[in-house]
Amino acid sequence: MEFLILGAADTVPTAIGSSLVQLVTFLVLLGALSYFVWKPLKKVMDERENLIHTEIDDAEQRKAEAVRLKEENEAVLRDTQAEISSMMDNAKQQAKKEQEAIIHDANTRANQMMNDAKVDIEREKEKAIRDINSQVSELSVLIAEKMISKEINQEDQKDLISRYLQEAGDK
Amino acid sequence: MEHGTPLWTIDVFGLPVTFDLSTSLMIIVSSLIVFLIAFFMTRNIAVRPTGKSQVLMEVLMNFVKGIISGNMAWKQGGRFHFLALTLILYIAVSNFLGLPFAFVAPDENHTLWWKSPTADPAVTLTLASVMIVLTHYYGVKMRGTKAYIKSYAEPFGFMVPFKILEEFTYNLTLGLRLYGNIYAGEILLALLTTVMMSGAIGFIGGFIPMMVWQGFSIYIGAIQAFIFVMLSMVYLSHKVSDDH
User: Fold this and answer.
1) Contact partners, residue A120, CB within 8 Å, separation at least 6
2) Which ranges does the record mark as transmembrane (chain B) (predicted)?
3) Which residues of chain A make contact with B114, given a CB cutoff of 8 A?
C-alpha cells in the first residue's frame, strides 16, 4: 500500500515506525535539553535580570537619599548662617550699648572731677584772698606806723583799715 | 535517481511495524548533535557571561522568546519556551544535516543512509501533529472545555465545518511545508551531484550551481525551522489566547 504523500518509498508501516522513533526521540531530547541546558540557562538569565532590577532600585533609593541629605544639609547650613548673623547682630548691639555706657560713665566722672576741681579752686581762691587781705592790712599798719611814726593801737588801726577797705570794695 | 531504504520490521501485537532505519538513525544523530552542542555550550554559565557560547545561547533564548511573545502574552506563552527552543534547534540541525554529504551504500538498491531526517514526511508530520495536539490540549487546559468548544462556532455558527477542517489542514501544511522544502533541496543536490559525477565538463558546470544551492539550502533550512516554530506558536496562541 503506497502512502499518499510523495516520499522515498514510504508505506504506512514505515511511516508509523518513523513517527514512533521521532516522537520518542523528540520527547527525550526535549526532556534532556530542558533539564541540562534550558533550565540552568534560564535560571542564570533570571538571576541576572533580578540582579539588574535590584541594582536599579538600589541606585534610585540611594539617589533619593542623597537628594534628601543634600536638602537637609542645606537647611542646616541656612539655619546656622541665620543663627550666626543674629548672634553677630546681638553682639554688635551689646558692644554698642557697652561702649555708650562706658563713654557716659567717663563723661559723668569727668564732669564730676571738673566740678570738684572748680570747687577746690574757688575755695583756695577765697582762702588766698582772705590771707592776702589780712597780710595787706598788717602791711598797711606797718606802712602807716612808719609814715606817721606814731604808735597807735594796732587793733584800732586794723579795724579802721578794714573799714576803709570794705568801703573801697563796696564802691 | 532512486534510492533504496533500509527497513526493519517487527510484529507488535500482530501488527507489522516497519522502521525506516536510515530515518531512525538520522533522527537519533540529529538529536544527539543538538543535545551535545547545547550541552557543551552551556557548561560554564554565570550571571556574568565569561564566554561567547553562553552569549550565543542567550541570544537564541531571547530570539525564541521574541517569537512567542510576538504571538501571545508571555504569562501564557512562557510555558512553551523550552519546547520552542528545542524544536527550532532540532529542525534547524536536521535541515542542515543533509547538506554537506549524503551517504549511499554501494549495494544494488543504492540504499541511502545519510540524509536530513526532515526530508521524510513521516518525521515532519509527526512534529506537526505533536504541535497541533498540544494546541488542543492547552486550549482545553487554559481556557476550559466550554470556551474551547465555543471557539469553533466563532464568529459564525455555520463556520464549524470549516473550523474543524482547518485543524487538519494546519497539521498537513505545517508538516508538508517543511518536508517539501528540505526534500526538494536534497533532490536538487542529488541531481547536481550526478551532473558533477558525469565527467569533467559536468564537474566544472555543476560546481558553481552546487555551491549556490548549498548556500541557499542553509538559508532555507534556517528559515524553515523559524517558520515551523513561528506557525506552531501562532496556532497555539489561537487556541490559548482569550481575545480570539
Assistant:
1) none
2) 21-42, 82-102, 122-140, 187-210, 216-236
3) none
